[in-house]
Design a protein that fits this description.
By secondary structure, this protein is mostly helical. The protein folds into two domains: about 80 residues, Orthogonal Bundle (Rna Polymerase Sigma Factor, Chain: A), CATH 1.10.1740; about 70 residues, Orthogonal Bundle (Arc Repressor Mutant, subunit A), CATH 1.10.10.10. The protein has eight helices and no strands. Helix 3 crosses helix 4 and helix 7 crosses helix 8. About 5% of the residues have low confidence.
């Protein structure tokens, strides 16, 4: 079944089409949710809520070719993660005016696999991790992050900077990163 046919089927309430899209995207969406929500059962719940919202609003979705389903679903999942963190009051971000300047050398990350990098990111405090994920992984701008999290752009920059510092310190502990 093609993605476009699955979308058409979902708009008609076809369970086979819904299952097809779920099977195609569940693993990636769960990994996305786990980047924000540390506890696996909570991440699974967030993912399932995201799929529910995706299917509930499928009539408004316009298929624009390959990748459009994943992009729309990803946006829904990120929003679900942020709502979950707000609801659990885990999204605590200190209001700070100035961001620290941190050198960013990505070369050490090339020596690590994705699971090792994810483990380091998961150790970040919720606020740092959330801003880091939105900026470095999802591609949001500081302006978009500020609007989404109801913080200032400076706070977003500061949280990202501090996340990078923490990641660099952890990389130094593992011997992967040596500050020059």
């Amino acid at each position: 079944m093609t993605e476009q046919r699955a979308i058409e089927g979902c708009k008609k309430g076809d369970r086979i089409s819904q299952k097809h899209l779920f099977d195609a995207y569940a693993d990636n969406m769960l990994l996305l949710c786990m980047r924000y929500v540390r506890v696996v059962p909570d991440a699974e719940e967030v993912m399932l809520n995201g799929f529910y919202k995706f299917l509930k609003s499928i009539d408004t979705f316009v298929y624009n070719g390959s990748g459009s389903v994943g992009a729309w679903m990803k946006k829904i999942m990120v929003n679900e993660c942020l709502m979950f963190l707000r609801k659990k009051k885990e999204l605590r971000i200190a209001d700070e005016t100035y961001a620290e300047q941190v050198s960013t050398n990505d070369d050490p990350l090339m020596k690590m696999n994705a699971a090792e990098i994810l483990k380091l990111v998961m150790q970040l405090p919720t606020g740092y991790r959330t801003v880091f994920n939105l900026y470095a992984i999802e591609g949001y701008s500081h302006k978009e992050i500020a609007a989404e999290l109801s913080i200032t752009e400076g706070t977003s920059k500061s949280q990202l900077s501090k996340a990078r510092v923490m990641l660099q310190k952890e990389l130094q502990k593992t011997g992967v990163y040596d500050e020059k």
